[in-house]
Amino acid sequence: MEQSNKPHRSGSTNKTPAKKKLHQNGQNKKAFAVAAPRKLEKMARRSHDVNERKLHVPMVDRTPDDDPPPVIVAIVGPPGTGKTTLIKSLIRRLTKTTLQDINGPITVVSGKRRRLTFIEVGNDLNSMIDIAKIADLVLLLIDGNYGLEMETMEFLNIAQHHGMPRVLGVATHLDLFKSQSTLRLSKKRLKHRFWTEVYQGAKLFYLSGVINGRYPDREILNLCRFISVMKFRPLKWRNEHPYLLADRITDLTHPMTIQENPKCDRKIAIYGYLHGTPLNYENQMVHICGAGDYQVANVEKLPDPCPTPYFEQKLEEIEREKIKQQIENGEKPARTTTRRRKRLEDKQKIIYAPMSDVGGVLVDKDAVYIDTGNNFNKDNENKGEGEQLVVDLQDVSKTIKERFEEGPGLQLFSNSNALNEVDEDEEAELDLLSDEETIVDTGRTLLRKAKVYGKSISEDDEFDKELSDNEEEEDIDEFEHGKVEVDFGNQYSDKELDYVEDSALSSDDEENGYYNTAQKLKGSIRRNWDINKLLYLPNIEPEDVLKRWRGEEDEEKEENIEDDEEDFFKKKEIKQVDQDDSIKPSFPSLEVLKERFEEESNSDEEYENGYKILKNRLLTAPKLNEVDTEKQEDEGNEDEELYGDFEDLENEDQEEKEENQEQEDNQDDFADFDKEENDEGESDNEPEDNSDLSIEEQRKLNAAKKAKLKMQFEEEEDREFGVEDPEGDTEAETWYEFQKNKMAKQLEINKQQYDQMTPEQRMKVEGYKAGSYVKITFINLPCEFINNFNPKFPLVLGGLLSTELRFGVMNARIRRHRWHKKILKTQDPLILSLGWRRFQTLPIYTTSDSRTRNRMLKYTPEHAYCFASFYGPLVAPNTTFVGFNIIDNKSTTGAFRVSATGIIEDINSSVEIVKKLKLVGYPYKIFRNTAFIKDMFSNALEVAKFEGAQIRTVSGIRGEIKRALSKPDGYYRATFEDKILMSDIIFLKTWYPVKVKKFYNPVTSLLLNDHNEWQGMRLTGKIRADEQIETPMNNDSSYKKIERPERRFNPLKVPRSIKADLPYKSQISEMKPQKKKTYMAKRAVVLGGEEKKKRDLIQKLQTISKEKEQKRKSKKDEKFKERLKKIAKVEELRKEKEKERKKEYFQKEGKKRSINFEGSSKRQKT
Amino acid sequence: MSSKSNIITFEGHRNFRLRLILSLLSGKSIKIVKIRSDDLNPGLKDYEVSFLRLLESITNGSHIEISYTGTTIIFKPGIIIGGDLTHNCPHSKPIGYFVEFIIMLAPFSKKKFNIIFKGLTNSHDDQDSGIDLVKWGLLPIMEKFGVREISLHILKRGSPPLGGGEVHFQCNSLIQQLLTIHSVDIPKFSIIRGIAYCTRVSPSVVNRMIDTSRKILKSTGCEVNITADVWRGENSGKSPGFGITLIAENKRGWRILCENTGKANELPEELSEGTTYQLLDEITKSGCIGRFQILLCLVYMSIGKEDIGRIIIHKDQVDEKFIYNLRDIKQILGVEAFLKEDEEDNNFIIVNVKGNGFTSISKKVA
Q1: At a CB cut-off of 8 Å and minimum separation 6, what does A188 contact?
Q2: Which CATH architecture has domain B1-80?
């Protein structure tokens, strides 16, 4: 069949299409009308919402973008959900290696610029807490059959309060669902549950069954892809602290010391990739999670064991540049480089996992194990050569001693030491060294030193660089001044090297070296010192620093400016005398200054040094650019203006003179200004002026100019959204964009400035930046740390800021977790995970009484926030934390363990918390408004303290404490607003201060033999239960039934004799008793005849009706009973039927279950 | 528990206040030994003790131990609280001695600073800064770092020796972090301002000072604007005195300034002349800030965000004090500066400092 295509219409011929015709009478209104305005509005609103939700508070991302540290991927889940299987599958997918045993973090290269560190998190609260603080991505494994379990919930809650990392849910064991419909249903249910926990639309992966001990390749591939494109937002805490997840650890303590004292403090090196902000160059304090705070003794940057292809490529580029230059300089290239690779090859899929058994080699803390396969058989004939060698090694018939005695042949073995950890280290370093060789330009010194001292190469390498820098400098010096001896460079470096060798043993500072060399150099050769090196050498006094730094200048100036030098010395003298504390600068004497700036005595020299510079620094009025005559006139006018107000008659002559002088001077000035103008003109009209320059040169100039402009930063205030920005780089439409641009620019500036520094300077200023692989050495770690080390538990090092080393009281807003069963009690120990640390402390819960005072609460409120004050290491306000009552596995019940969550609001050295105190007293003597009170205080001193305090009776009569009585100690006089009764009780309401107990107990779980059994201080209730102590009960505190006997008041009886004597006013008015009988009392009522009959009749009628009613009722009851019986019968029948049905059902279902059970048990076995 | 012998030790009374202030900012304990141990009057001076007392009153939990001879002190810093208080300064040092360092703490406190200082507003000792120097020199620099709403009011002038001055210092902005500043071009100063003041002497003294200095500055062709500030009656303190402060200012608000106070038997003309020449000298030997302001800049750059801030200074400004200051900053804050020669003019140096990411922890949230 033939296809009927639209015929081609050429554009040129017919240029009046139908559209145009449509628009002939204005626009086609229908086309532009809104069809559904409501819907449109909704859509617009929604899109705005979506856009708005994307915005976050702009935050600087401190991770370097050129070589970022590996992404930490934590695999979390309850036991048996398939964490290990998942890691194995992922590793297999990414590196094509199969791991037998997973220990510690595993770093793999996953893409051109991305590395991943996988770490499995066991079912231990401590590990979960530590990992929640550092993980970038969490793969949350969920058993599809059970849904979210308690551990998962706990982890999510912990993670949420330590800056939620990205969470990917992975549902496993989905192959156990028999029917598709239930699978679908449970998937959906799980998804929604997961969404409520994480966020709406969170990604949940579904992994079906296990094939060959791995998850299906397709599913893993998808997961990998998902991970590889994932982006991460910086989290506040991690953006302010350096941290490291250790992937290797070695004990560097001298074996002898250990032998002498097995419990001695250890020197331990911890390796890993740095994350977060740069680690300080020195004196960094670090918190080892689960061990405590320690000072870093030494940091070494090591070559990356797992470099990204991108990084390697960059290194190669640098190398190539170098070689190019070498060739240009006429030197022979040192070596050829390898080809650049374009795709991630198998070779580049590096895996680095020192704690696991990569490639069958397992590095333990004191040995290296080589896996020779599962079925170990010596007689196995078909073995590889290497394997054979290893097996042969084991096949030793005699001991070393025996062999030693034998004599010959041992020589061969004496070289090869037993494989111990130290040796391994060296080996590794040698390996690294060979890596390093391809990277940097090295000399022969490297190898030697590495062998002799076992120092890592990177440091030495730095040193070398430094050396070469110095040499370069020297070269420049030579070139410039021609004063330096030719062989100096060599000599210098030799000296330096000698020193290195010496000092390495005594572990001296390299600074000493400078000083030594400096001293050696001092007499013979003047060098142009780099101020940056001199600045911080503690051995060199600032005066010397300045002298050395200015050394060249002095020499040059020596002949002609003696004054200046004098001046210089003068200054120094002054400074030597007063070791002053002032920041106000001192000036040379007036004469010197006058000479410099005085017009008349201005020799050329002076002019050049003083006045000309001054002119350069001042922005003068434009009139100075005009011609001489005008200028003079102007000056004259100005003078008039200036001095119009004050007439100095005396000095008029002088002034005239001065003016003349000024004119002369001005001529000088004009020359200067002309020149200056020219200069400016040059810069302004560069294109025209520089016409003689070639275009390229011009371009270069322009580029340089532009670059400079770009790097210029206007002051903050001047810029409103970057309006004045020269390049318009930071210009933005919204505040948000503006902020982001500003941050980007600052980062750019940082990078540029760092690049200008030499590596070691950069290291000092910047520190060890994130992404570098470092070895951090500690010298005083407890031996338990290494003895009980278990690679299954993550080892996290968190850098501490200086404030975090201080201790104090923190006030926090806290809430009992709603899933935690009990409310929390004041002063009961609570384990907090705050900052890097986990520690136990005694919080006091408070509430604020309308902001007048902080009142102590005995218990946290049921559902509301309250305040808590506790002692511990300070962290910045706004840090969130999580609290637990128990974290050890032994005392864990099935209950939810996260007991409280909160946020630090305020830190202080002390805090005012009060609790109510009611003092009770009783009156023992009452005057009109005055009463003496007893039993409230025990002595007069106490009373004195409360003089003037408000008191109150139970009935509400207010009063005041006046003064202590002298006689019964502690009794006092008080006045009231009204007369009180003897039966009144007097209250004094006061507030009693509560002190926060200084209890801080770090969770040192990593020092224990069993890492997940750290217990700490027990709760009060727990202690009572354990020790079987009864809860103390104050008898007064128990609630009893209040018995209030009716108070009876006897009538007032006044004896007659007294009554008679009473004055009229006080006479008690009484009525006389009545003597006559009343009318009613006199008559008795008797029922009459008619009346009696009526009543009788009514009574009879009532009796009959009652009887009738009763009969009817009994009949009704009978009927009802019969009905009940009927119903019961029907019910019984129904039940029987039900029973039968159930029986049938369970007979069927039970069979199914048993099959299922068998299946699951099978799975567990594999 | 916390202080495991990580006390930083210094020797001598150099940079006494700086060290204490840095200690407070960083939270590290310091120990200063050998304070004037070789002097005839060993130990702390009264003004230094007064400074310590002031620190104690604006902080909570600070712990000061002064040895029996006064030659050794141990300072364990607490938390900066601030608040309202009055401080009586001893007559051996002017108020400026206290204010110039206290202002560094002000933006990082828990409550707003509201302190009335009583004492000398100026001193004729050349070492100590007068209140005008602080007001016109340091506060604008603080504003550059993002500390706004900071003010210094001279309620009463008090000349030496008897004083009687009163200065009200107020800081209303409590900030979390300082801004990173970048000032890398050599500024040109466009205007010279000044304040000539006198207390309990004839107002003509002020005019004489202004005249002299104008005459000298005329040749520079700059706009000159010197204010006469004559104090009378109660507010003029207890002693007669006069002084002048000159400020060169550029359009961006950077200032270079210098001041002097009249000594006994000194003519106002002499004083003014000397000060003017000193200002000219300072201008020729400065980048965008004078020597007086460098320390504040260095400290604030060191405790800034973890970015590189830059500021241009003159080579002559790299003197001993500068180096001592940098070393102290390094020792306490662990921040090193990097000096780089300016590409355009090799008389200038750009100081690069990477902040240590300090954030104010005293401030309460919500």
Answers
A1: none
A2: 2-Layer Sandwich (3.30)
Give the residue from chain B lying closest to A293, CA to CA: B2
**A76 and A220 housed in the same domain:** yes
A82 with A209, same domain? Answer: yes
8 Å CB contact of A618 and B308? no
Q: B290-354 has which CATH code?
A: 3.10.28
Among the listed ranges A281-285, A378-382, A860-864, A1027-1031, which one has the minimum average pLDDT value?
Answer: A378-382
A202 vs A524, higher pLDDT: A202
Would residue A570 count as lying in a domain?
Answer: no
Question: What does the alpha-carbon distance between residue A555 and residue A575 come to, in Å, rounded to a whole number?
Answer: 23
Can you list the alpha helix ranges (DSSP code H) found in A998-1072?
Answer: 1020-1027, 1056-1061
Give me the residue label for tokens 């040749």.
B219
Query: How many residue pairs from chains A and B have C-beta atoms closer than 8 A?
Result: 248
Q: Which residues pair with A742 in a beta bridge?
A: none
Name the domain count of chain A: 3
**Helix ranges (DSSP H) in A58-146:** 83-95, 125-134
Average pLDDT, chain A: 77
What's the rounded mean pLDDT across residues A769-778?
Answer: 93
pLDDT band at B168 (very low <50, low <70, confident <90, very high): very high
Tell me which of 3.90.230.10, 3.40.50.300, 3.40.50.970, 3.30.360.20 is the CATH number of domain B189-284.
3.30.360.20
Q: What is the pLDDT of residues A355-372, one digit of tens each?
A: 887 765 655 545 565 655
pLDDT tens readout for residues A373-387 = 544 454 545 556 666
**In this structure, are strands A950-953 and B337-341 parallel, antiparallel, or unpaired?**
unpaired
Q: What is the pLDDT of residues A791-832, one digit of tens each?
A: 999 999 999 998 899 999 999 999 999 999 999 999 999 999
3-state SS class at A367: coil
B162 exposed, middle or buried (CB, 10 Å; 0-12, 13-18, 19+)? middle
- A692: contact with B, CB 8 A cutoff: no
Measure Cα distances from A596 to A609, A612, A709, B192, B210 in Å. 7, 10, 35, 19, 22
Q: Which domain holds residue A103?
A: 71-234
Q: What is the largest CA-CA distance in chain B?
A: 65
* Model confidence at A573: pLDDT above 80: no
Distance CA B225, CA A637 (A): 17
Q: Scanning the structure block, which residue is given the tokens 């020792």?
A: B331
Q: Select the residue from B219, B259, B282, B326 to test the A interface by mutation, using most A Cβ atoms within 10 A.
A: B219
Beta strands in chain B (DSSP E): 8-11, 30-33, 59-60, 63-66, 73-76, 79-80, 83-88, 113-119, 150-156, 165-171, 182-183, 189-199, 223-231, 241-250, 255-261, 308-314, 337-341, 348-354
Cross-chain Cβ contact B284/A587 below 8 Å: no
Q: What is the four-CA torsion angle of A607, A611, A615, A618, rounded to 10 degrees?
A: 170
